[in-house]
From TrEMBL, chains A, B:
Family designation: Belongs to the HMG-CoA lyase family.
Protein name per Swiss-Prot or TrEMBL: Hydroxymethylglutaryl-CoA lyase
Ranges where the Pyruvate carboxyltransferase domain occurs: 8-275
Classification lineage: Bacteria, Pseudomonadati, Pseudomonadota, Betaproteobacteria, Burkholderiales
Keywords: Lyase, Metal-binding
InterPro entries for the chain: Aldolase_TIM, HMGL, PYR_CT
GO molecular function: lyase activity
Xref: CDD domains: DRE_TIM_HMGL
Matches recorded under PANTHER family: HYDROXYMETHYLGLUTARYL-COA LYASE (PTHR42738)
Organism: Paraburkholderia acidicola
Length: 324, 324
């Protein structure tokens, strides 16, 4: 099955899922400048910020200012995370294209992360959906821990499909299956994506991977094989995981785009522009980023032959390095 | 196509491909102790060391002592890298099960890494093969830069197959296709593996990936899909790449085993034992290792619910973290 030129849709989430995990506050102007650069890169969607309590996530306390001051590029969907009715009202006033609601598929993670039972979350998000449906704004739901819960372990696919069904009944446009703490593995991803696509063909389905255990790109391959064409990713691989100190974050945008381009997909994203943007991150957040591609360069960023390369003169042979 | 319980063969290369890249000399006793632990982990093969010039690779200047003093476990193949006739003589005296010859598929990399033209390398390795064929010792050939050269760029599959054919004619038992600087991508890997398997069904074919651009596990999936059942990997992800300072190294053994086990393969390797061994590395080499799994733990190494998890009491909701 050829993948040549298959069109994909990439969503950049670094300024939300990335920055919310950073200790250092990124200046509002710097956020806006970064998002303006990202708007030129060819993403289908940018998750700009989160309209949550400034007490809960001080890193994103400037949500209104950022959302209102970015330069919006026609064709790019500007979405924001919204946890509740108050957040939705703020988001709608800021002129978002989409609200991204969130709850966890596992009870333990929902209670830990959102401090509510899942039923309480669902009721609250139902109120949000009812409000937003009165507008032109689209509704996406991100289902956290859809491929594993750090407290409960396996999350049955039936449970994921059940919650998808309940949100589909609320009239949402899309659902994102989130591997919140990097517990997904390829065969699981393939199976879940096939089931979800078959059960809800009317929903835009997005996959959201974290690279916590190194499998984000392998899981992406499995999702692609199952027909998925929408992926969240984070510039520089920002993201992190509160359960794994020092662990890497979301799947890295530039590494995802690099692989997809090599494999012949049309991601729509300009890899050189993304790499340029990623170089800004260490100064903004005050530390190195997980991105390997930023260190190694693209596959065909070639290196000169060193002046010491041998020409077959015997005495040079003794110094061979013999790596494989 | 079910992969359930398919038998795979994993080769641990950290004490060769990993240690040769380290600035700090790992004490001979520590090397022996680590290899003895690795011998208990279920690997099909362990690349113990390299019989090269101590001037070229001082980190492995104790090749004889290590090879002769390890406790060999029946069933495990103990192999060593051998660059030339002198190295082969030393290896045979040390009682190895296999010699692993090496040359690059690309002329520029061969001249840089081995200080010879490819034809000079091939002639020299022909002499080595002639010597080793007089013994019971097996011969493997590692073909470097088989999926890309950091100086030349793309390496045509036909070039790889051509060199495989010349070594097959020398009577070698196996060939390892090495993605020396992490330039391979999934669709390329699948195509090359299918061609190589079809052309040389009599050869044991091994894939050797580096994670330089984050694709090592994705490339492994592609190789598995193409029927490959042998993989090199390096404990902790040791390895590195001289062309990408700070970049990650070989595919990480524990991350590879973890993914393969989750996907239902029978790797033969005890993941808990491998993780235990990997915890020793930072002290041995004096720095952190690329392994993400060592930081994050296995997928089902679960975490307790924090005491602060909400039970739905409204005032707690304000502090929700709302990550996805």
């Amino acid at each position: 099955m050829s993948t040549a030129h298959k069109k994909l849709y990439l969503h950049e989430v670094a300024t939300r899922d990335g920055f919310q995990n950073e200790a250092r506050f990124v200046d509002t102007d710097a956020k806006i400048a970064l998002i303006n650069r990202l708007s030129q890169c060819g993403f289908a969607k940018i998750e700009v910020t989160s309209f949550t309590s400034p007490k809960a996530i001080p890193a994103l306390r400037d949500a209104e200012a950022v959302m209102q001051q970015i330069t919006r590029v026609p064709g790019v969907i500007y979405t924001v995370l919204v946890p509740n009715l108050r957040g939705a009202e703020r988001a709608l006033l800021s002129g978002v294209d989409e609200v991204n609601l969130v709850m966890s598929v596992s009870e333990s993670h929902n209670r830990t992360n959102l401090r509510m039972t899942r039923e309480q979350s669902f009721a609250q998000l139902g109120d949000v959906a009812a409000l937003v449906r009165q507008t032109e704004v689209a509704i996406n739901v991100s289902l956290s821990t859809a491929m594993g819960c750090p407290m409960e372990g396996d999350v049955p696919a039936a449970e994921v499909l059940g919650w998808m069904g309940r949100f589909a009944d609320l009239g949402v446009h899309g659902i994102t299956l989130c591997d919140t703490t990097g517990m997904a593995f390829p065969s699981q991803v393939g199976e879940l994506c096939r089931k979800a696509n078959a059960a809800f063909p009317q929903l835009e389905l997005t996959l959201h991977f974290h690279n916590t255990r190194g499998m984000a790109l392998a899981n992406t391959l499995a999702a692609l094989d199952a027909g998925i064409d929408r992926f969240d990713a984070s510039l520089g691989g920002l993201g992190g995981c509160p359960y794994a100190p020092g662990a890497t974050g979301n799947v890295c945008t530039e590494e995802l785009v690099h692989m997809l381009e090599l494999d012949g997909y049309d991601s729509g994203v300009d890899l050189a522009a993304v790499l340029d943007a990623a170089t800004l991150l260490p100064d903004l957040i005050g530390h190195d980023v997980p991105s390997q591609l930023l260190k190694a360069g693209r596959r065909l960023d070639l290196h000169p032959m060193p002046a010491t390369a041998g020409d077959g003169i015997p005495e040079q042979r003794a110094f061979a390095q013999q790596g494989a």
